[in-house]
Write a structure and sequence with these properties.
This protein has a single domain (about 5-220), classed as Vaccinia Virus protein VP39 (Rossmann fold, 3-Layer(aba) Sandwich), CATH 3.40.50. Helix content is about 30%, strand content about 30%. The protein contains 7 helices and 11 strands. It has helices at about 30-45, 60-75, 90-95, 100, 105-115, 170-175, 190-200, and strands at about 5, 15, 20-25, 50-55, 80-85, 120-125, 130-135, 150-155, 180-185, 205-210, 215-220. The strands form 2 sheets. It has an 8-stranded mixed sheet. The protein has a 3-stranded antiparallel sheet with strand order 1-2-3, with no helix packed on it. The chain starts with a strand and ends with a strand.
C-alpha cells in the first residue's frame, strides 16, 4: 500500500493513501484530533487505571504514543492491544514527527512501538505495555478475548472507504469485549454508525468534534 506523508494544520504529520483517497488522521491537525477524540474523550474521561485499551487500527501509532505519554505522566499502568493488518515500515515510522512536537526525548520510545514484536505483549515503559495483533480487524473472530477492555479506540478508515470495518457484527463483538462501564470513542458521527453503536448495546453521546469535525461519538456499556 503506497502512503505519502502530509503536514496537517497543527504541524503534525498524517499519511495519505492515494489508492483509497484517504488520510490516516485529520488534515486539520493529526495530534489535535487524536488528543480530542481518544485521549480527552476516552482515556482521561474514563479515568480508570490500570486500564486495558483496545485500538482498532494501530496505523501510525499516534493513539498508542499519546496513551503511553498519559500513562507515564500519571504513573498508572496501561495495557494496550492494537489490531493492524497493514503496518508501517520502520522507515515510514521514523519520518513521523509526533515525538518532536510533543516530547522529543520520547522519539526512541515512539520507534519502539513500531519495532515491538507482533502477537505478544511488550513492555515499552514501566507503565505501558503494548500488544499488536497482526490480523484483519474486520473479522470479529480475530479479536483476542483474554480480557475485558475499559476503552475501545475505533479508528478505522471512514465507512465510505472501508465499509467492511463498520458493521453491526463488529460493534456487537466490541460491546461483548468491553468491561462494565467501558467506553468506545470514534471520530465518525454518521447516523448509521450511531445506530449500530446503540443496536450493539452502547449508550451513545454525540460530542463536539475537533476542528474540521462537527461531532464525534462516545459510547458506554452499562
Amino acid at each position: 500500500m503506497k502512503r505519502e506523508i502530509e503536514v496537517t494544520e497543527d504541524g503534525s504529520h498524517t499519511l495519505f493513501v492515494p489508492e483509497l483517497d484517504e488520510h490516516y488522521h485529520s488534515t486539520h491537525g493529526a495530534i489535535r484530533e487524536s488528543e480530542w477524540v481518544y485521549i480527552d474523550a476516552g482515556l482521561k474521561y474514563r479515568g480508570k487505571f490500570p486500564a486495558n485499551i483496545l485500538e482498532v487500527g494501530f496505523g501510525t501509532g499516534l493513539n498508542a504514543f499519546l496513551s503511553m505519554l498519559e500513562a507515564d505522566r500519571r504513573e498508572a499502568p496501561v495495557f494496550y492491544t492494537a489490531m493492524e493488518m497493514y503496518p508501517l515500515s520502520l522507515s515510514e515510522a521514523e519520518l513521523l514527527n509526533y515525538a518532536a512536537l510533543t516530547d522529543p526525548a520520547k522519539q526512541e520510545l515512539f520507534i519502539k512501538l513500531h519495532q515491538s514484536p507482533w502477537n505478544k505483549a511488550c513492555g515499552i515503559t514501566p507503565n505501558f505495555t503494548l500488544r499488536k495483533i497482526r490480523a484483519d480487524a474486520a473479522h470479529p473472530a480475530n479479536y483476542p478475548s483474554d480480557c475485558f477492555y475499559d476503552l475501545v479506540f475505533f479508528d478505522a478508515f471512514a465507512p465510505d472507504k472501508q465499509s467492511q470495518m463498520w458493521t453491526p457484527e463488529l460493534f456487537e463483538k466490541l460491546y461483548d469485549l468491553s468491561a462494565d462501564g467501558g467506553i468506545i470513542t470514534t471520530y465518525c458521527a454518521k447516523g448509521r454508525v450511531r445506530r449500530m453503536f446503540q443496536s450493539a448495546g452502547f449508550v451513545v453521546e454525540r460530542l463536539p468534534g475537533p476542528p474540521g469535525k462537527r461531532e464525534i461519538l462516545r459510547g458506554r456499556k452499562g
